[in-house]
Design a protein that fits this description.
The structure is a homodimer of 128-residue chains. With 128 residues, the first copy, chain A, is mainly α. Chain A is built from 6 helices and 2 strands, in the order ααββαααα. In chain A, 66% of the residues lie in helices and 3% in strands. Chain A starts with a helix and ends with a helix. Chains A and B meet through helix 3, helix 4, helix 5 and helix 6 of A and helix 3, helix 4, helix 5 and helix 6 of B. Chain A binds a DNA duplex (30 and 30 nucleotides) through helix 2.
Chain lengths: 128, 128
DNA sequence: TATAAAGTTTCCAGTCACTGGAATGTAAAG
DNA sequence: CTTTACATTCCAGTGACTGGAAACTTTATA
């Protein structure tokens, strides 16, 4: 199938699918006459896999790792679990960060009148 | 003072401070003889302000807005509060995203033996 | 005072994961 | 046969820096 069909089936944009070909993550066959990329069902499965992994916040490099594990029938689930646990840990960090950020900001908002006068504890805090 | 002193006082890197000058966010005076950037205490206060706002996850453009409010003695606190509330809302979105991501991943990890056998529910899920 | 070291300048390139757009070529539909 | 849709490559831009090179100034040391 052509690239737009592959894009549709995998839920990615044509640009993204082409990008994944450029960076040699999913390299489809080529139609010799037209030069068009020709995607197999297997290619689409890989695109799907990558799309999901990206949505799970895995980086492109991590996707590459997962993909090679995915394609290796003799891999151990230990490796995959390790990667995933590391990902969870990094998500936890981000959660912590954003949580304390939220706390601080909402504290400031609560102190701020939000009226037409210039006095503003938010700016005061920012300038300390 | 020179750039490295300003960087130290504001807790930013020299590269970052120079970058903020390049994008016309904090434009210091110049030593005519040497061409070196010459930072005033006021400049450092602005750098500090920006550093904090960035740590609060405000984008450069938002920092620019906040900075101009900060420098406008007649601004109303309403505007600042509005910006901050919007920032909180966007943080809430991110929190929600990461939270559900975390849930899904930890569910997968719990289903995975993590042993030396190839069977792996994480990859199974990713390939669905 | 000569030289070395530290600090600064500009400029260009790279990061990450795409996205947009132009110019051009091919395929399918009317 | 022409229009339209889809495809190709290549170049540039995003955000917010960061790294590095080459050249210059200032400061410290021998």
């Amino acid at each position: 199938m052509n690239i737009s069909q592959a894009a549709k089936l995998s839920g990615l944009s044509v640009k993204t699918v082409r990008y994944y070909a450029d960076i040699k993550m999913v390299e489809p066959a080529r139609n010799i006459q037209s030069g068009y990329r020709s995607y197999s069902n297997d290619d689409v499965a890989k695109l799907n896999f990558i799309g999901k992994a990206r949505r799970f916040n895995f980086s492109i490099e991590e996707c590459r790792e997962l993909l090679s594990l995915y394609q290796d029938k003799n891999r151990s689930s230990k490796e995959v679990k390790k990667l995933t646990l590391a990902k969870i840990a990094s998500i936890d960090e981000k959660l912590k960060e954003f949580h304390s950020l939220r706390e601080e900001l909402s504290h400031l908002v609560n102190c701020c009148n939000g009226d037409d006068r210039p006095s503003c504890p938010i700016l005061d805090e920012l300038s300390k």
